[in-house]
Amino acid sequence: MAEEMQRILSTGQGQEIVELRDELRCIIWDPEWQPEESRLHVPGVRDPSEIGLKYVALQLTRGLKFEEFQSREAAIADCILQTYSWIFDPPFQVTTPDGENTWSSFPDWLERSSDPIYWITGKPGSGKSTMMKYILENPALKTHLRHWAGDTPLLIARSYAWNAGATLQKSFGGLKRTLLYQILNQQPDLLPELMPRRWAYYSLLLQGISQTPPWLDWEIDESFKFLLSMGGDKVRLVLFVDGLDEFDVPPKEVVDLHESTAASKCIKACVASRPWVEFDDAYRDMPQCHMHLLTARDMRTFVAERFRGCRAFTTLRNIYPHEATRLLEELTGKSNGVFVWLRVVVDSLVESATEGCGIVELQAVLDSLLTDLTLLYDAIWSRIPSDSQRRGVILLQLVEAAF
């Protein structure tokens, strides 16, 4: 077959080349085909490693991307200056008064821990996703991980699950696509191992990348299985997966997937979820941090910065220093560690102060707001004039239609 391929590629006409491609696709994408066949070599054809691997990786993995590939991460708010930096510090609160483990050293886990998983947990809205984003954007991450990886190539991949998003944003298929795309574009020389079918097709033809079949679930599963079977001497891989509770499968299946992923000696996984019982049962003995129990300092910083920028409140604070200080302290305490609640309430109070409300009125607004997020939104909505409500409904419908 090699001689016939060489003849067609050298002198064949368009139709012959098309037929050759079709025949190769049928052979290589047969589920029974074995990766060892990727070693086929056609005499006289350049070795594919001589071609720009980065370009080849980009082309071969292009079909893994989907429209909402990065939309969830882009929608996550950046942390306020000087907040969340404590995650890279020695723990200042290891347990709660009743002995519950609340914070394990994150740098220790990055550098040398034999535990494969670090669990970031917390109430809804407590800042888990923002913490993930902060960690991934912090230069200290790679510095600590280099102790663990040594001279072995270090790869970092991320995925943010989102139950309110598109199908691929909340499915295992989308998770695997996202991770494989990032890994292969960081380390293109893993292509032959992780994508043997597409690599074989390209190696034999050195052309026709655009003619490869669309990715099907079974091939994605196969590539992910090859990833998990890699030895630690080739790469060290760290996965960050946010929103375990956002997947559209039972929590037990999510736990099973990540435990099988972290079973590889070359892989660590930092995962984030709400403190559901299934996740607590699986990760209670793993290094972890409970966001809603650890963010009081961050919340005080956020509140201070936000109100410092409100001239009307600064004036009130100069006149009523005791009452203003008490208001800010109650804000942090009433939030119960939920950053989303705090953001919504602070924005509402700043707006009220700007519109001329006094300190007594601001305190009354805070006292009237409930700590449950759903009830809080209902209370804020009820305070909006009916004309503005109608316009708001139209805007919300437009936003929903856009997604």
Give a brief description.
This protein is α/β, with parallel strands linked by helices and about 400 residues long.
Characterization of the model:
There is one protein chain. Among the domains are: 71-187 and 235-290, Rossmann fold (3-Layer(aba) Sandwich); 296-402, no CATH class. With 403 residues, the chain is of the alpha/beta class. The protein has 20 helices and five strands. A five-stranded parallel β-sheet has the order 2-3-4-1-5, with helices on both faces. It is elongated, with a radius of gyration of 27 Å.
Element layout with pairings:
Elements lengths: L1 H10 L2 H15 L24 H9 L9 H5 L30 H6 L5 E5 L6 H10 L2 H10 L4 E7 L11 H15 L4 H4 L1 H10 L11 H12 L7 E7 L8 H12 L4 E7 L3 H7 L4 E3 L5 H13 L2 H9 L1 H14 L4 H16 L4 H10 L4 H10 L3 H17 L1
Parallel strand pairs: 1-4, 1-5, 2-3, 3-4
Protein name: Nephrocystin 3-like N-terminal domain-containing protein
Keywords: Repeat
Pfam family, one: NPHP3_N
Could you name the key traits of this structure?
Rossmann fold, alpha/beta, 403 residues
Quick one: biggest sheet? 5 strands, parallel
For the secondary structure, the number of strands is 5
Q: Report the span from N to C terminus.
A: 50 Å
Largest sheet, spatial ordering of strands = 2-3-4-1-5
Give the CA-based shape.
elongated
CATH topology of the domain at 71-187 and 235-290: Rossmann fold
Helix-strand sequence: HHHHHEHHEHHHHEHEHEHHHHHHH
**What percentage of residues falls in helices of 4 or more residues?**
40-55%
Q: Based on the coordinates given, report the CATH architecture of the domain at 71-187 and 235-290.
A: 3-Layer(aba) Sandwich
Name the poorly predicted regions.
Answer: 37-46
Instruction: Output the CATH class name of the domain at 71-187 and 235-290.
Output: Alpha Beta
Strand content: 5-15%
What is the average per-residue confidence, as pLDDT, rounded to a whole number?
83
Structural class: alpha/beta
Number of helices: 20
Q: Write down the Rg.
A: 27 Å
